[in-house]
Amino acid sequence: MPPATTRFAPSPTGLLHLGHAHAALFAARAVAGGRFLLRLEDIDASRCRPAFAAAVLEDLAWLGLRWEQPVRVQSEHFAEYAAVLAGLAARGLLYPCFCTRAEIAASASAPHGPEGALYPGTCRGLSLAAREEKMAAGLPHALRLDMAAALRAVPQPLWFEEMGEGRLRCDPAAFGDVVLARKDTPASYHLCVCHDDSVQGVTLVTRGEDLKPATQLHRLLQELCGWPQPAYAHHGLLLGADGKRLAKRDQAPTLRALREAGRTPAEVRALAGFPD
Ligand code: GLU
User: Fold this and answer.
1) CA distances (Å), 52 to each of 20, 48, 256, in order?
2) Would you identify the CATH topology of the domain 93-192+209-229?
3) Concatenated DSSP letters for 93-131?
4) Would you say domain 1-76+238-276 falls under CATH 3.40.980.10?
5) In the list 45, 195, 246, 275, which could disulfide-bond 252, CB 3.0-4.6 Å?
């Protein structure tokens, strides 16, 4: 078997904190002797900043991590995501959705999926003429996956290999007609992450267990697009002293602050759950 390839894929929306250090070290240690790649998931231009991207590289290097070049920067690849979306649209698997958040929230009876209220399908039933009229009027729209059509297009059942757990069955239908291109961002996290794992040759996806449900949808996208199936290792999230998940919004200590307070990389690795 060739050595495994994994990646750490932060979004440069702030400075890295101990939770990120845990995820990065988990990835690098999972493929010790294999390939460790880095990807900046910066498709959301309203939240990502170049200064944070530069800080990610600096802080990870300070922590003692080394990765293969080049670093993949998602915002440099919008044309590739657009080509994937065009391919899915040509197969009748996508439709434009003109609904506002408020309209979707107002359909309060909507059942819930892993990512909140399921889209009630309003725009799925629009006639071609109605769609063209709204497009011509320049109404902002997202692109949604027609889940029922997508499920008909792939062999069932879908499953993924979770390290230490074996094969887990997927139920992508629980996500409903997910958004694959947002009104304000030309491609969604789900699409970009699966596309890039394929392009980068990732064979082991490591990430926090908060993203484990999304893997069910990712397996569907991989099958639809003919991308290889990686193995998965979802890790527990580092908790703060209050027992709550470390997150930027809770003012988790950043790697930068720890470094400036005189902590050594080895001490910070230990704080992140990976003592040498
Ligand atoms: N960019 C995602 C994050 O910041 C991680 C995506 C992934 O590892 O699949 O949490």
Assistant:
1) 13, 7, 11
2) Rossmann fold (3.40.50)
3) -EEEE---HHHHHH-TTPPEETTEEPP--GGGG--HHHH
4) no
5) 246
- Pocket of ligand 1 contains residue 211 by CB under 6 Å: yes
1-76+238-276 and 93-192+209-229 in the same fold? yes
Query: What residue segments make up the domains of the chain, in order of their start?
Result: 1-76+238-276, 93-192+209-229
pLDDT in tens, 2-48: 789 999 999 999 999 999 999 999 999 999 889 999 999 999 989 99
pTM comes to 0.94
| Residue of the CA atom closest to atom 1 of ligand 1 | 10
Decide: 255 and 62 in contact? Cβ < 8 Å.
Answer: yes
Q: Model confidence over 199-241: pLDDT tens digits?
A: 999 999 999 999 999 999 999 999 999 999 999 999 999 877 7
